């Protein structure tokens, strides 16, 4: 990351950076909303037996599986939220849109779909191939 003295303020962002910043803030709000729903659903599952709703073993198993699924989804959303926060920080430090592997520019087409992307297509593809072997 760039040195602290090179950090921009919101007012110093150029139009491209501001557009991605706004896009990331919107996505951050969406992800946080999804996390809240997952947390509420997980809490609902874990409290079902305390309310006397679950009386059959199969219902308890279903509630347990749903609880675990909601926690997994919440964890995945937390990972995306961290990527979004990191991307926002990179906007202000001038590192946004640079591949963390090769240092090349991530194409706008990729950033428009996934503004929190940290790898260019070439490096991401290479990583996926290596992971599958």
The helix fraction, in percent, is 55-70%
CATH topology of the largest domain: Four Helix Bundle (Hemerythrin (Met), subunit A)
Sheet with most strands: none
**Which structural class should the secondary elements be placed in?**
mainly alpha
Continuous helix count: 4
Q: Could you say what the CATH architecture of the largest domain is?
A: Up-down Bundle
| Overall residue-averaged pLDDT value | 85
Number of strands: 0
Q: How many whole angstroms does the radius of gyration measure?
A: 20 Å
The dominant shape is: flat
Q: Count the domains.
A: 2
The first-level CATH class name of the largest domain: Mainly Alpha
Strand percentage: under 5%
List segments where confidence is low: pLDDT < 50 over at least 5 consecutive residues. Answer: none
What does this structure look like?
With 133 residues, the protein is mostly helical. The chain has two domains: 13-96, Four Helix Bundle (Hemerythrin (Met), subunit A), CATH 1.20.120.910; 97-133, no CATH class. Helix content is 66%, strand content 0%. It has helices at residues 15-47, 57-93, 108-113, 121-132. Helix 1 (15-47) packs antiparallel against helix 2 (57-93). The relative contact order is 0.14. The mean pLDDT is 85.
């Amino acid at each position: 990351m760039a040195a602290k003295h090179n950090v921009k303020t919101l007012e110093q962002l150029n139009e491209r950076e501001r557009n991605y910043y706004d896009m990331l803030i919107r996505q951050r709000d969406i992800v946080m909303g999804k996390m809240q729903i997952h947390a509420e659903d997980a809490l609902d599952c874990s409290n079902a037996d305390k309310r006397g709703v679950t009386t059959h073993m199969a219902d308890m198993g279903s509630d347990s599986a749903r609880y675990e699924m909601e926690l997994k989804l919440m964890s995945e959303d937390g990972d995306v939220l961290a990527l979004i926060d990191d991307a926002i920080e990179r906007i202000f430090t001038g590192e946004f849109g640079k591949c963390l592997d090769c240092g090349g520019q991530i194409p706008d087409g990729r950033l428009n779909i996934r503004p929190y992307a940290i790898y260019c297509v070439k490096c991401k593809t290479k990583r996926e191939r290596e992971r599958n072997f």
